TrEMBL record:
This is Copper chaperone PCu(A)C. The keyword Amino-acid biosynthesis does not apply. Residues 1-27 form the signal peptide. Keywords: Signal. InterPro entries: LpqE-like, Lxx211020-like, PCuAC_sf. Pfam families: PCuAC. Gene3D superfamilies: PCu(A)C copper chaperone (2.60.40.1890). The keyword Signal applies.
Amino acid sequence: MLNARMPTKTLFAALLASLALAAPAHADGPEVHDAYARTAYPGAPTAAAFMVIHNHGGADDRLIDARSPIAAKTELHTHIDAGDGVMQMRHVPEGFALETDGEIVMERGGHHVMLMGVGETLEPGDTVPLTLVFESGAEIILDVPVMSDEEAAAIGHGAMDHGEMDHDDMGEDHMDHETVDQ
């Protein structure tokens, strides 16, 4: 504890020690970069979040869930080629592996967080509160910025039009993104 009567060197050493404890250390485990969210069109009841998740030396882990208070349902999704050249979106209930010193790239046309039954209009400049949940018990709480295609392209993410995806033949894990039960 700092005391005004401490000698200057002792006070300085105590101050440095307290700053070292308060400074965020580069911890092992998941870390998120370049997160952003998009809607298919203005006022859409769905949105998707994209990002890169790095595992900096922690043990192998797995992203198993995502939550957001602005959506009736939040799921981990990916796109697969159904064999006819048409990409289909699928819910991935087991989540995505995150190996030691590895990463999960969540990008348009690939892995992403799907927000369904969004109760408010999202526009560029807004933020989406999002919690990522890992098998290890780690949770990362984010405020994900909503970006335009141009803004997303500027940080290196593609500008695939999610609205052009085939949502018709998605099997039993499919959820019609337009009619989520509230």
